[in-house]
Amino acid sequence: MDVNGKFHKGCYMESASYNPSLGPVQAALVAFVASGGGGYDEIVAAVLVEKEEAVVRQGDTARLLLKMVSPNCDFRVFLLLFISKWMCVKELTWFGQISIVIHLMLKCCSELVER
């Protein structure tokens, strides 16, 4: 989220070869720049939502990247638990807007799973 309250989102994008893949925070930074975002110092908050059982985690890389480009960014990682086809957030202690974003993301994900 930038200083104006605008959300910029990204997801992991894998390429046929391993190296050119983009992590979710890298993709969100591309979206920030592409939408006319200012300097990286205008990024004030970031959230990464991952499956708790994921073999590969993006949190450490995302934290390092954000620390370098936007050191004052408040970065949080939320882990998802999968219970049957329902997902729930293991930890939700951040500000209210993030719960709305996660709720909408989960709704979109569940619609994709049902297709």
TrEMBL record:
<protein>
    <recommendedName>
        <fullName>Cytidine/deoxycytidylate deaminase zinc-binding domain-containing protein</fullName>
    </recommendedName>
</protein>
<dbReference type="GO" id="GO:0008270">
    <property type="term" value="F:zinc ion binding"/>
</dbReference>
<feature type="domain" description="Cytidine/deoxycytidylate deaminase zinc-binding">
    <location>
        <begin position="2"/>
        <end position="63"/>
    </location>
</feature>
<dbReference type="Pfam" id="PF08211">
    <property type="entry name" value="dCMP_cyt_deam_2"/>
</dbReference>
<dbReference type="GO" id="GO:0004126">
    <property type="term" value="F:cytidine deaminase activity"/>
</dbReference>
<dbReference type="InterPro" id="IPR016193">
    <property type="entry name" value="Cytidine_deaminase-like"/>
</dbReference>
<dbReference type="InterPro" id="IPR013171">
    <property type="entry name" value="Cyd/dCyd_deaminase_Zn-bd"/>
</dbReference>
